[in-house]
Amino acid sequence: MMEGLQAIKYERGKLQVLDQLSLPHEFVYDDVSTCEEAFDCIKTMRVRGAPAIAIVAALALAVELEHKKDGANEKQDLVKYITSRLDYLFNSRPTAVDLSNSINLLKKQTQAAASFTTKTGDSACAEIRGVFIKTAEKILEDDYTTNLAIGRYGAEYLRRQQMPIVTPVDENEELRYYTTSPPGTQGAPDKTYRKLSVLTHCNTGSLATSGHGTALGIIRSLHKMNYLDHAYCTETRPYNQGSRLTSFELVYEEIPSTLITDSMAGALFSRKKEEKNISAVIVGADRVVRNGDTANKIGTYTLAVLAKAHGIKFVVAAPTTSIDLETETGGSIKIEERAKTELTQITGAVVGKDGKVDVKHTERVAVADQRVDVWNPSFDVTPHELIDAIITEKGEVVRSSKGTFDFKTIMPERW
Ligand code: MRU
């Protein structure tokens, strides 16, 4: 049972996607019933986040097949149709690997269904459509259970990094401590720990996935387990996924949180690390390659460098669907470049003289000289050397003797 905000609403034959460009002002769900609509929704970032992109693409085609928009009554024609629709969706956004991983899975299952069916004509097509739809629905369901597991593993990883405190707890501040037995020592006398604070970047929550989220899922789990003092989130320029979406999710969930601009992270670490026990930067991933280099929202690399300089753990939360074992190092990842208007213009709801936000009245305004040259890479690559832990639904990824991450242990079938 999925809890909380839902970016994607689905029942067989009907897909609705929350328009994230209207957030946090308005809650509008758009019907998505064709691959063209899904492509547009992904490209314009009304839905975004690596897992959510893959889910919407898979389910849009499942909806088409449920309504038999393919018009096929021979299995070869249907397989051709499905393949061409998936190839079309593949080109919507290039950096997140979840989309191509789910496309590969859907193609493989479709081919297998076509090869193994003993039926012919219409009944073979019905069987293949059924296999496709079930595979797409499983991508949605699996993502949610995956996120819950990442949340648990991530919270436990961060918990293990904490040292018990020896000084007596200041009674006025007791809310900032928790008491439990040290990890792996059930039954031993309880010790006291400081709650921890973390910084996250971009949006990796319910809005970027089927629910719960990855990096934001870890923050949710930390909060539920009573280990969290405070969550900081960056604004995440230029598209403001942090201020528009993550801060909205944190407020919605009543998680103690503060929004900062991207450029404030260094000041936050140097001035608040001790006071707030800032213990980790937790981010998601669009593509983690074979050695552990990770592509994620632009600004992630900067945060990793800053975290290293301040002795703060840098943690990547990534489902195995975001792992690309075909690519050896981060240098080969294709980085999407987006329109210059994302930097030179901004959309917001109008604020009246009384300070009230008029949610029905949004305006696009220029924030730079429109003639200026702009470079707008949507992602950057953080080298594996700067990453302390990669947390997947199968647990923490161990390191090889060379210092790279070793995915063989968690993904032997894809190694
Ligand atoms: O451009 P976006 O908003 O799709 O970028 C999203 C990110 O970079 C996320 O951190 C990543 O996709 C992981 S979402 C669980």
UniProtKB/TrEMBL annotation:
Top-rank lineage group of the source organism: Eukaryota
Signal peptide: none
GO cellular component: cytoplasm; nucleus
Keyword Cytoplasm: yes
Reaction catalysis annotation: 5-(methylsulfanyl)-alpha-D-ribose 1-phosphate = 5-(methylsulfanyl)-D-ribulose 1-phosphate
Keyword Iron-sulfur: no
EC number(s) reported in the record: 5.3.1.23
GO terms (BP aspect): L-methionine salvage from methylthioadenosine
InterPro entries the UniProt entry points to: IF-2B-related, IF-M1Pi, IF_2B-like_C, Initiation_fac_2B_a/b/d, M1Pi_N, NagB/RpiA_transferase-like
Keywords linked to the UniProt accession: Amino-acid biosynthesis, Cytoplasm, Isomerase, Methionine biosynthesis, Nucleus
Pfam families associated with the record: IF-2B
Pathway stated in the Swiss-Prot or TrEMBL entry: Amino-acid biosynthesis; L-methionine biosynthesis via salvage pathway; L-methionine from S-methyl-5-thio-alpha-D-ribose 1-phosphate: step 1/6
Record localization: Cytoplasm; Nucleus
GO function terms (MF aspect): S-methyl-5-thioribose-1-phosphate isomerase activity
Enzyme class, spelled out: isomerase
Catalytic site positions: 286 (proton donor)
Record-annotated site: Transition state stabilizer: 202
Function description: Catalyzes the interconversion of methylthioribose-1-phosphate (MTR-1-P) into methylthioribulose-1-phosphate (MTRu-1-P).
Protein family (similarity comment): Belongs to the eIF-2B alpha/beta/delta subunits family. MtnA subfamily.
Name this protein carries in UniProt: Methylthioribose-1-phosphate isomerase
Species classification: Eukaryota, Fungi, Dikarya, Ascomycota, Pezizomycotina
